Amino acid sequence: MNAIKFQFITHFTERYSYFDSARLALEGGCRWIQLRMKDAPAEVVEAEAVRIMQLCKEYGATFIIDDHVELVKKLGADGVHLGKNDMPIANARKILGKNFIIGGTANTFDDVCMHVNSGADYIGMGPFRYTTTKKNLSPVLGLQGYKGILGQMAAKGISVPVVAIGGITADDIEDVMQTGVSGIALSGTILRATDPVSETRQILQKIDNSNTY
Ligand SMILES: Cc1ncc(COP(=O)(O)OP(=O)(O)O)c(N)n1
Ligand SMILES: Cc1ncsc1CCOP(=O)(O)O
Ligand SMILES: [Mg+2]
């Protein structure tokens, strides 16, 4: 998990299909794709997941799916990301066993503790700033929010990988990485870029350059 510092999350756009957006991120060097298709019928998510999972295999990339635990098991995807309104992580762990990645969303230190106790492999912590990519956003954390929660984690010896998420642009990466997070997850910055492949490359370069290990 530590080797993976950048997760691209799909989002509906008029410009690209889910498949094409994943392909562009992969072409730019991303090796961790999350298929997130809010409000799409289960069979549509499944059809897209089958195609993107195959593409990820071709690129040697990790492929996880937002929300759909049973689909992850059925297809043999690499894992699932779960938030407050999804299946509890402990239940997902019972269904998936230990060989699947389970990520959990956190906005507070208590959220982190709950997910760690339930067996989460990584935390998606955010939002960093306001974003239209997700409805019903939790309070914005900003740099100080990350520093505070990561400080509490360090004090308690909690070392689960944390990816920052929510409204992050290439210009934010250095500062966000400096807070001590392990990596970055984003969507809109790549989908809005004039050239998503080169945007992905630049983001990966910035993450590498701000390596805090
Ligand atoms: C890496 C990552 N972090 C957070 C989220 C948000 O998940 P959730 O809170 O379940 O909200 P939805 O994405 O389901 O709207 C995520 N998907 N990925
Ligand atoms: C899924 C999710 N969870 C918190 S913010 C967010 C959206 C991230 O997308 P963007 O990078 O476009 O803000
Ligand atoms: Mg969810």
From TrEMBL:
<dbReference type="InterPro" id="IPR022998">
    <property type="entry name" value="ThiamineP_synth_TenI"/>
</dbReference>
<dbReference type="GO" id="GO:0004789">
    <property type="term" value="F:thiamine-phosphate diphosphorylase activity"/>
</dbReference>
<keyword id="KW-0808">Transferase</keyword>
<feature type="binding site">
    <location>
        <position position="167"/>
    </location>
    <ligand>
        <name>2-[(2R,5Z)-2-carboxy-4-methylthiazol-5(2H)-ylidene]ethyl phosphate</name>
    </ligand>
</feature>
<dbReference type="InterPro" id="IPR013785">
    <property type="entry name" value="Aldolase_TIM"/>
</dbReference>
<dbReference type="Pfam" id="PF02581">
    <property type="entry name" value="TMP-TENI"/>
</dbReference>
<feature type="binding site">
    <location>
        <begin position="131"/>
        <end position="133"/>
    </location>
    <ligand>
        <name>2-[(2R,5Z)-2-carboxy-4-methylthiazol-5(2H)-ylidene]ethyl phosphate</name>
    </ligand>
</feature>
<comment type="function">
    <text>Condenses 4-methyl-5-(beta-hydroxyethyl)thiazole monophosphate (THZ-P) and 2-methyl-4-amino-5-hydroxymethyl pyrimidine pyrophosphate (HMP-PP) to form thiamine monophosphate (TMP).</text>
</comment>
<comment type="similarity">
    <text>Belongs to the thiamine-phosphate synthase family.</text>
</comment>
<comment type="pathway">
    <text>Cofactor biosynthesis; thiamine diphosphate biosynthesis; thiamine phosphate from 4-amino-2-methyl-5-diphosphomethylpyrimidine and 4-methyl-5-(2-phosphoethyl)-thiazole: step 1/1.</text>
</comment>
<dbReference type="InterPro" id="IPR034291">
    <property type="entry name" value="TMP_synthase"/>
</dbReference>
<dbReference type="GO" id="GO:0009228">
    <property type="term" value="P:thiamine biosynthetic process"/>
</dbReference>
<protein>
    <recommendedName>
        <fullName>Thiamine-phosphate synthase</fullName>
        <ecNumber>2.5.1.3</ecNumber>
    </recommendedName>
</protein>
<feature type="domain" description="Thiamine phosphate synthase/TenI">
    <location>
        <begin position="16"/>
        <end position="189"/>
    </location>
</feature>
<dbReference type="GO" id="GO:0000287">
    <property type="term" value="F:magnesium ion binding"/>
</dbReference>
<feature type="binding site">
    <location>
        <position position="134"/>
    </location>
    <ligand>
        <name>4-amino-2-methyl-5-(diphosphooxymethyl)pyrimidine</name>
    </ligand>
</feature>
<dbReference type="InterPro" id="IPR036206">
    <property type="entry name" value="ThiamineP_synth_sf"/>
</dbReference>
<feature type="binding site">
    <location>
        <position position="105"/>
    </location>
    <ligand>
        <name>4-amino-2-methyl-5-(diphosphooxymethyl)pyrimidine</name>
    </ligand>
</feature>
<dbReference type="GO" id="GO:0005737">
    <property type="term" value="C:cytoplasm"/>
</dbReference>
<keyword id="KW-0460">Magnesium</keyword>
<feature type="binding site">
    <location>
        <position position="67"/>
    </location>
    <ligand>
        <name>Mg(2+)</name>
    </ligand>
</feature>
<dbReference type="GO" id="GO:0009229">
    <property type="term" value="P:thiamine diphosphate biosynthetic process"/>
</dbReference>
<keyword id="KW-0479">Metal-binding</keyword>
<feature type="binding site">
    <location>
        <begin position="34"/>
        <end position="38"/>
    </location>
    <ligand>
        <name>4-amino-2-methyl-5-(diphosphooxymethyl)pyrimidine</name>
    </ligand>
</feature>
<feature type="binding site">
    <location>
        <position position="86"/>
    </location>
    <ligand>
        <name>Mg(2+)</name>
    </ligand>
</feature>
<keyword id="KW-0784">Thiamine biosynthesis</keyword>
<feature type="binding site">
    <location>
        <position position="66"/>
    </location>
    <ligand>
        <name>4-amino-2-methyl-5-(diphosphooxymethyl)pyrimidine</name>
    </ligand>
</feature>
